[in-house]
Design brief:
alpha/beta; 7 helices; four-stranded mixed beta sheet
């Protein structure tokens, strides 16, 4: 660094102030740290005392974790006919709910036939009903519009893929942690509990008292 002085920041973020470059280098050497220029365009430039090797390692770990958690949203397609029957419609809605629940977008498409193109309002009503039926996991991102002989609408998920995956993992781990408690084992009576906690002498006296009581009866 060919500058006479720098604004120095300590290893824990503390502000040291403006010092000569020679002093900054000496402090770095004495602290067994590196002098790293973090804001070269500032006047004077800002430098920080740090372990540069450790800094690069931690930055690489963070970048790797970010790539690991990064997930690409997929656009799934669900196609309808304008005169779709109830069973087929419910099946399509089920597919859409599964896609949206997994964090993917859904492109709902109505394919018009012949004179059906003259009744776009029927397509709009069908897509609006579809949006209502998937509202628990999705929200309309693109309103119904004509695209050639088709009408399309895009519904986006309320949760991204990372959140959906995390929620699924939590549900799976919750199911796995449940243990079955046996209920068919016979319960001990209070008398058996008391007897088991006695020594032999006390148990003998108890039996003697019980026999005497039965004889008196």
């Amino acid at each position: 660094m060919r500058v006479p002085e720098v604004r120095l920041v300590g290893p824990n973020g503390e502000q040291v102030g403006i010092v000569r470059i020679e002093d900054a280098l000496r402090l770095a050497h004495e602290s067994d740290l590196d002098l790293v220029e973090v804001a070269p365009n500032a006047k004077p430039p800002v430098c920080k005392l740090m372990d540069f090797g450790k800094y690069k390692y931690e930055a690489a770990v963070k970048a790797r974790e970010a790539r690991k958690n990064q997930t690409n949203t997929v656009l799934k397609e669900v196609r309808f006919r304008l005169k779709i029957d109830t069973h087929d419609y419910e099946t399509k809605v089920g597919h859409a709910l599964r896609f949206l629940g997994a964090g993917d977008k859904v492109k709902a498409m109505i394919q018009f036939r012949g004179r059906e193109q003259q009744r776009p309002e029927m397509g709009i009503r069908l897509l609006e009903k579809f949006a209502e039926d998937v509202a628990e996991v999705g929200i309309v991102e693109s309103s119904p519009r004509i695209d050639g002989r088709n009408m399309v609408m895009v519904v986006g998920p309320l949760k991204n893929k990372a959140e959906a995956r995390r929620e699924q993992q939590q549900k799976s781990s919750g199911r796995g942690s449940k243990r079955r408690v046996p209920t068919d084992a016979p319960a001990e009576t209070s008398e058996q509990n008391v007897a088991s906690s006695m020594d032999d002498e006390a148990r003998a006296k108890l039996e003697q008292a019980r026999a005497q009581a039965e004889g008196d009866a």
